[in-house]
């Protein structure tokens, strides 16, 4: 098996992180000699925010105020991870980035720079109502109707153009997935559509 590249997209509550991790497990079962480099910008930001640095305090201030981090930060996170940790022989997974068009263009340039052929974009697609019901069911303090509505609107305004960028780029295979199913059924659809 050749090392694969996957970019996972999906709105809050769609379960994209779960599906990405299930796919990692399947690939490891098929060929344990190929390791996975899993780039999750959200966890990296949490790590930076806990460091107590000047940048950490700025990140906490922006996120705490419901603001948007500037594009250079997620671009730096995935670029830094690739430069420091990528050997060229791993499966590559991107979860949580890119989330804006400019980030998508930079990630595209990185994927092409590394010569990663057959890169696949997996888009977990759910309705606003489905995502809202699922998020409200989690019972987290920040999962109130107004906050969820804002997050879903932000996704349409900012992330959808990034998805369209990859969808209209012949370098990538675009795989839409019906996320309004059980975790197992979504996983089965991912495996079937990827031919794994």
Walk me through what this model shows.
The protein has helices at 16-30, 41-49, 54-64, 72-85, 101-113, 128-138, 145-167, 183-194; strands at 5-9, 36-40, 91-95, 119-125, 172-178. The protein has 196 residues and is α/β, with parallel strands linked by helices. The protein has one domain (5-41, 87-194): P-loop containing nucleotide triphosphate hydrolases (Rossmann fold). The protein has a 5-stranded parallel β-sheet, with helices on both faces. Helix 1 packs across helix 8, helix 5 packs across helix 7 and helix 6 packs across helix 7. It is globular and about 45 Å long.
> Which regions are unreliable across 5 or more consecutive residues at pLDDT < 50?
none
CATH architecture: 3-Layer(aba) Sandwich
Global Rg: 17 Å
Q: Please, what is the CATH homologous superfamily?
A: P-loop containing nucleotide triphosphate hydrolases
Strand order of the largest sheet: 2-3-1-4-5
Kindly report how far apart the N and C termini lie.
11 Å
The percent range for helix content is: 55-70%
Shape: globular
